[in-house]
Amino acid sequence: MAGTEQTTRERILAHGLDLLSEVGLSGVTLGVLAENVGMSKSGLFAHFRSKDAVQIALLQQMARTANAVVVAPAMQRPPGLARLTTLVEGWLGWTTRAGLRGGCPVAAALFELDDVDGEVRDEVVAMEARWRGLLSQLTREAMDEGALRPDLDIEQFVWEFCGLYLSHHASHRFLRDPQAEARALRAFAALVDRSRPNSSSKETHS
Amino acid sequence: MAGTEQTTRERILAHGLDLLSEVGLSGVTLGVLAENVGMSKSGLFAHFRSKDAVQIALLQQMARTANAVVVAPAMQRPPGLARLTTLVEGWLGWTTRAGLRGGCPVAAALFELDDVDGEVRDEVVAMEARWRGLLSQLTREAMDEGALRPDLDIEQFVWEFCGLYLSHHASHRFLRDPQAEARALRAFAALVDRSRPNSSSKETHS
User: Fold this and answer.
1) A58-193 CATH, one of 1.10.357.10, 1.10.274.10, 1.10.2020.10, 3.90.226.10
2) pTM value?
3) Is A100 helix (H, G, I), strand (E, B) or coil?
4) Which residues are paired to A184 by β-bridges?
5) Residues paired with A205 in a beta bridge
6) Looking at CA atoms only, how far is residue B4 from chain A in angstroms?
7) Which of A53, B46, B67, B187 has the largest count of CB atoms under 10 Å?
8) Minimum distance, in Å, between the CA of residue B194 and any CA atom of chain A
9) Measured between CA atoms, how close is A6 to chain B, in angstroms?
10) Residue in A115, A170, A204 closest to B103 by CB
11) What letter would DSSP give residue B26?
């Protein structure tokens, strides 16, 4: 029985994450999700007691998926700029490589939940903090390696890095610009270039 | 009668834009908007025949508001880097200065409607194209003035510029980081710096 229970839950999470990537958090109601999974709303209710509970479970499912698709390949590289670069390349457009129909649920949530308080927002805040923490750690490793300057403002670097991801998401998924990835990689190369020890630029200093 | 008619429509648009900035397009249904304005759903229906029609009218209202709050002050500056900088400073966090409760409806729509086709998406695509056209024009003026290098890749510059806006929106409105504006202005200064005629950086070349 426990096995069947888990399989149904997994099926709900897989369908739900696909739906979430396409329609955003506000579109994932218990009714719509039940229809997508092909089960009754009361059947779904046995697994998740509220819309918030299902949204939080889907965000956690997304984190596990992104970890496998984006983070794990980067962690196989040696620490330093190589690892950071592999992470960037894996992060851009990762949902397509994860087999999802839509875009990044967290990127969408940053704009959907900016003015909407609650436990779903709190979950996204915590996820975003962990993610920026990982980016900071990989940036620090590239500094320790000597590829980035020792006095780099890590927070500023990560901040610009995140802007590059959001701009890629908007141009790739919304504007459907075929140049999106090339532009993102060029912006990343420029950010790294001015953060190198021998760069003449002073702007990323803290 | 025509005067009263217009006043009611204006009242709907003012309340609706405030609501839109807070809850996003999916939250602005005819029912919710009618309740916000304090009129019946059938009364609202006399002004707007569908959810799509009201959303498009609200996006156009937003464009008029942003034009007054962000674009007009920039256009009073002489063409060149001064005008471009004034535009950036006015663009960051413009909705608060426009008296709106929430964030930028177009920034949110770039993520909300990326996978949802229809006439509302088409309207946002057209608005975003006009906006990026204006950013390109002001960048061109700064090149003509000699403040930016003559072989600058304008599209890349504007692309990074838009990423900076999105990162500011996420860090200011979602993460509620008090450093958001300072980080955005530092990123803009760095982008301008490496786009100057005497910059040693090559990354923004086409």
Assistant:
1) 1.10.357.10
2) 0.93
3) coil
4) none
5) A152
6) 33
7) B187
8) 8
9) 30
10) A115
11) G
| CA gap A143, B45 in Å, rounded | 60
pLDDT for the residue numbered B206: 40
Hey, what are A66's tokens? 């992104």
Contacts of B57 (CB under 8 A, 6+ apart): B13, B16, B48
Q: Choose the mutation target among B29, B159, B185, B201 for the interface with A, i.e. most A CBs under 10 Å.
A: B159
* A167, B160 contact by CB (below 8 A): yes
Q: What are the backbone angles phi and psi of residue B153, rounded to the nearest 5°? A: -80, 95
Closest residue, chain B, to A183 (C-alpha): B156
What residue has token string 């999700």? Answer: A33
**Distance between CA atoms of A122 and A117, rounded to whole angstroms?**
8
Average pLDDT in the B70-75 region? 98
CB–CB contacts below 8 A, A to B: 154
CA distances from B98 to A12, A109, B91, B161 (A): 42, 23, 11, 21
Question: Domain limits of chain B?
Answer: 60-193
Sign of CA dihedral A94, A118, B110, A192: negative
Domain B60-193 superfamily per CATH: Tetracycline Repressor, domain 2 (1.10.357.10)
Interface test with A, best of B22, B161, B164, B167 (most A CBs within 10 A): B167
Chain B positions in Cβ-Cβ contact with residue A200 (cut-off 8 Å):
200
Length of chain A: 206
Q: What is the ipTM of this complex?
A: 0.92
Model pLDDT, residue A206: 40
Span A61-78, average pLDDT: 97
Q: pLDDT band for position A34 (50/70/90)?
A: very high
pLDDT digits (tens, 9 = 90+) for B78-103: 999 999 999 999 999 999 999 999 99
DSSP B29: -
